[in-house]
User: Which sequence fits this backbone?
């Protein structure tokens, strides 16, 4: 049997509780200034690529990366609130800029206990800067890494 990949599916990048951006403790993301999206309060430490695409940007501290994928869509994955202050501690980047990636590839390992022990919110924020609307499930919702949902 042959299965055609749906262009509008998105793989959950990390297990945890999926929440709306309105529940994030950062005004820039909460207000939608960075784009529409959602967040996940993680219960696991491996973050995988939610889509097939290309790594377009990796912040030097490893806490954020940009991915371009189908039809010019882009996303930003941002780990934690103010975690840039950790200067890379607690983050192990598994990819390089301009690297081609497939949905499910490991992008980043995070040390959740370390981040939380240092007093930082470990929420993982996923935003789509060029999208005006997403079709999200009712949130909050428990999700599992590599589970697929339809958002576009």
Assistant:
């Amino acid at each position: 049997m042959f299965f055609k990949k749906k262009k509008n599916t998105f793989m959950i990048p990390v297990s945890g509780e999926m929440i709306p951006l309105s529940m994030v403790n950062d005004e820039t993301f909460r207000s939608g200034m960075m784009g529409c999206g959602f967040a996940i309060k993680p219960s696991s430490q491996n973050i995988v690529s939610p889509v097939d695409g290309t790594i377009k940007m990796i912040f030097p501290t490893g806490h954020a990366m940009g991915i371009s994928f189908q039809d010019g869509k882009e996303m930003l994955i941002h780990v934690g609130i103010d975690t840039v202050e950790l200067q890379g501690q607690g983050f192990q980047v598994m990819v390089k800029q301009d690297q081609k990636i497939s949905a499910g590839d490991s992008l980043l390992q995070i040390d959740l206990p370390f981040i939380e022990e240092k007093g930082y919110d470990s929420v993982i924020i996923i935003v789509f800067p060029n999208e005006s609307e997403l079709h999200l499930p009712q949130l909050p919702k428990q999700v599992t890494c590599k589970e697929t949902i339809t958002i576009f």
The longest helix spans residues 112-117.
